[in-house]
Amino acid sequence: MDKIKRNRDYIALFMAVFAAIVFILIATFSYKFAPNNPLATDYDNLLKAPCSQYFFGTDQLGRDIFSRILYGGRTSLLIAFLVTAIISVTGIVIGAVSGFCGGVVDGILMRISDMLMAFPGSIFTIALVSFMGTGLVNLIIAMSLTGWTYYARLSRSMVLSIKNNNYIEQARLGGANPIKVLNCYILPVIIPPLLVYISQDIGSKLLTIAGLSLLGLGSQPPTPEWGYMLSEGKEYMNSAPWMLLFPGIIILINVIVFNLLGDALQNVLNPKKSAI
Amino acid sequence: MEQIKEISTRMASLVVILFGLSILTFSLTYILPSDPVEQLVESMGAGHDEEVMSRMREKYGLDKPFVEQYMVWLNGIFHGDFGLSVQYGQPVAKVLARKLPNTVILAVTSFIFMIAVSFPLGIISAVYKNKIADYIIRFMSFIGVSIPGFWVGMMLIYLFSVKLHLLPVGGSGSFEKLIMPTLTLGLGMSAYYIRRIRAVMLEQMGENYIIGCLSRGVKKSAIIFKHILPNSLLSIVTMLGMSFGGLLGGTMIVETVFSYNGIGKTAVDAISKRDYQVIQGYVLWMGFIYVMVNLFVDLSYQWFDPRIRRKGRKGGN
C-alpha cells in the first residue's frame, strides 16, 4: 500500500515537472508557435470573436489574442522565474548566514527583514515601483528587494534546528571552515524542503505580476502581458468577453501547474508531513 | 510578572519596527528618479535655474541632511501631518480618513463571509477525510488558491452586471455595491483557509489525546468541537489577524476592479497621478495597522491559550 502511494507520488511529480517544462518551452519559443504577430493590428477584424483565423479572437486594435497570450507568457513566466530565483537564493543565503553566525549579524539581518515584513502583501513592492517609476525592470527590482524575507526566515529557522547536530560539530572538529560547513553540510540539508516553497512561489509571483500589471505598474503597452491584457479586457467586456476570458484562464492554468508541482514535491520530499 | 515582561519586550520591539517602518517610508522619496524641485521649478516655467532651485530647496528644507529632514517629517507625522495631497489639495490624513470607512466596511463583510464559508467547509473536509465531500472541497479550494482574485472579480462583473443586470458594475456606498467585492475577496481567502483548517485539524487528530478521548468513549462531535477545534484555532488565529490587517489596508486590486472608493483605490489613483505624499501616507498607515494587528494577535494568545498564560510564551517566533 505504502509502496503504491510512493510510486503514485513519483508519477505525480514527474507529470507536474513535465507540464511545467512544457509551459516554459511554449513560453520561450512563443515566436515559433504564434500564428500572428502579437503587435500587428488588423483594422478589418476589431474585437472579432474566436474563429479559425484567430483562435482566441482579437482585441480592440485587432491584435491576435492567442499570439499575445503566447508572447505574454514569455514576459510573465520569465519575470516570475527571475524574481523567484533572485529572492530564493539571496533569502536562503541571508537566512543561513544569519542563523549560522548568530549574534550581531543575526540581529541586524533579522531586524531588516522584520521591517520589510511589517508591510502586508505587496504594499511595499507597489510603493517602491510607484516611486522608482513603472516598468518591468523596476518591477523586478522592487519584487526582489522585498521578497527575500520569507526565505530568510525559513532557512534561518531550519539552520537553527540543525546547527547543533553532532555531524556539524564533527565537521567543525575535522577542521572544516565555516564556509565549508555552510556549503557542504547545511545548505544541502535545508534546500530540498525549500524547493516546495520555491515552486509554489513561482505561481504566486505570476499572480503578483499580473496584479501589478493590471494596476499599470508592470509591463507597459504595447508589450503583451497577461495582467495588462486583462485590464484592457475589462474595458471591452461588454462587446468582447473573450478578451477577459482567455488571459485569465491561462494565468489560472499556469498557477495550477506550479502549485501542483509544489504539492507533488511536498509529497515526495516530506512524505510524513503530507501523509496526514 | 511574566506577562508584564512579555508585553514590555513586545512593546520595545514594536517601537523598533515602527521606527524602521518610518525610515523605509521616508526613504522612498530618495529613490524618485527625477528631482521634485527641478520638476516643480520647470513646471512653473522658470527653466533650469540653479539659483531658483536652491532657494526652493531651502524653502522646503530639502537642503538639510537626511537625518534632519527625517526628524522634521517624523515630527509632522506625530502631529498628524502627513503632508499635502497634490491631487486633492487637502492634507493626506484627511483624504485617507475620508476613504477609510468604506474600506473598513468591505474588510468586515469579506472577513465574516470568509469565516462563514471556510470554517464549515474546512471542518467537513477534515472530518470526512478522503470521502467524496473532502475531494470536492479540496478540488475547489485548490482551484481557489490558484485563481487570480481580480479575474474572479471581473468575471463576476461580466456575469452579474453585464449579462444578468442584477448588480451594479462598481462603486461604493450601498449594499448591492458591496456584494461582488465581498465575494471576490472572501472566496479567495476562503480557499486558503479551508486548506489550512483542514491541515491543522488533521494534525490535531493524530495526537495522542484524541486517541485517549476515543478510547474513553467520548462522542465524536464532542471531540471535534471541544478538543480538536479549539486546539486547531490557535494556529489559525495568527493568520486571521494578518488577513484582517491586510484587508484593512484595502486591497488595491479588488478596489480598483470594482471602482470601490476605499483607501486601496485612493492609493492606486495616487500612483497614477504621482501624488507621492498620499502613497507615503498610505504605506505608513498600512505598516502601522499591520504591526498593531500582529501585536494584538500575539497578546490574544494569552487569552486563547491557557498554557501560555501560565508559562509565558513557548518558543519564539
From TrEMBL, chain A:
<feature type="transmembrane region" description="Helical">
    <location>
        <begin position="77"/>
        <end position="105"/>
    </location>
</feature>
<feature type="domain" description="ABC transmembrane type-1">
    <location>
        <begin position="73"/>
        <end position="262"/>
    </location>
</feature>
<feature type="transmembrane region" description="Helical">
    <location>
        <begin position="12"/>
        <end position="31"/>
    </location>
</feature>
<keyword id="KW-0813">Transport</keyword>
<feature type="transmembrane region" description="Helical">
    <location>
        <begin position="126"/>
        <end position="151"/>
    </location>
</feature>
<keyword id="KW-1003">Cell membrane</keyword>
<dbReference type="InterPro" id="IPR035906">
    <property type="entry name" value="MetI-like_sf"/>
</dbReference>
<dbReference type="GO" id="GO:0005886">
    <property type="term" value="C:plasma membrane"/>
</dbReference>
<dbReference type="InterPro" id="IPR000515">
    <property type="entry name" value="MetI-like"/>
</dbReference>
<feature type="transmembrane region" description="Helical">
    <location>
        <begin position="179"/>
        <end position="199"/>
    </location>
</feature>
<dbReference type="InterPro" id="IPR050366">
    <property type="entry name" value="BP-dependent_transpt_permease"/>
</dbReference>
<feature type="transmembrane region" description="Helical">
    <location>
        <begin position="242"/>
        <end position="262"/>
    </location>
</feature>
<dbReference type="Pfam" id="PF00528">
    <property type="entry name" value="BPD_transp_1"/>
</dbReference>
<keyword id="KW-0812">Transmembrane</keyword>
<comment type="similarity">
    <text>Belongs to the binding-protein-dependent transport system permease family.</text>
</comment>
<keyword id="KW-1133">Transmembrane helix</keyword>
<keyword id="KW-0472">Membrane</keyword>
<protein>
    <submittedName>
        <fullName>Peptide/nickel transport system permease protein</fullName>
    </submittedName>
</protein>
<dbReference type="GO" id="GO:0055085">
    <property type="term" value="P:transmembrane transport"/>
</dbReference>
From TrEMBL, chain B:
<keyword id="KW-0812">Transmembrane</keyword>
<dbReference type="Pfam" id="PF19300">
    <property type="entry name" value="BPD_transp_1_N"/>
</dbReference>
<dbReference type="InterPro" id="IPR050045">
    <property type="entry name" value="Opp2B"/>
</dbReference>
<keyword id="KW-0406">Ion transport</keyword>
<comment type="subunit">
    <text>The complex is composed of two ATP-binding proteins (NikD and NikE), two transmembrane proteins (NikB and NikC) and a solute-binding protein (NikA).</text>
</comment>
<dbReference type="InterPro" id="IPR000515">
    <property type="entry name" value="MetI-like"/>
</dbReference>
<feature type="transmembrane region" description="Helical">
    <location>
        <begin position="12"/>
        <end position="32"/>
    </location>
</feature>
<keyword id="KW-0813">Transport</keyword>
<keyword id="KW-0472">Membrane</keyword>
<dbReference type="InterPro" id="IPR045621">
    <property type="entry name" value="BPD_transp_1_N"/>
</dbReference>
<feature type="transmembrane region" description="Helical">
    <location>
        <begin position="233"/>
        <end position="254"/>
    </location>
</feature>
<keyword id="KW-1133">Transmembrane helix</keyword>
<feature type="transmembrane region" description="Helical">
    <location>
        <begin position="135"/>
        <end position="158"/>
    </location>
</feature>
<protein>
    <recommendedName>
        <fullName>Nickel import system permease protein NikB</fullName>
    </recommendedName>
</protein>
<feature type="transmembrane region" description="Helical">
    <location>
        <begin position="178"/>
        <end position="195"/>
    </location>
</feature>
<feature type="domain" description="ABC transmembrane type-1">
    <location>
        <begin position="100"/>
        <end position="301"/>
    </location>
</feature>
<dbReference type="InterPro" id="IPR035906">
    <property type="entry name" value="MetI-like_sf"/>
</dbReference>
<keyword id="KW-0921">Nickel transport</keyword>
<feature type="transmembrane region" description="Helical">
    <location>
        <begin position="104"/>
        <end position="128"/>
    </location>
</feature>
<dbReference type="GO" id="GO:0005886">
    <property type="term" value="C:plasma membrane"/>
</dbReference>
<feature type="transmembrane region" description="Helical">
    <location>
        <begin position="282"/>
        <end position="304"/>
    </location>
</feature>
<keyword id="KW-0533">Nickel</keyword>
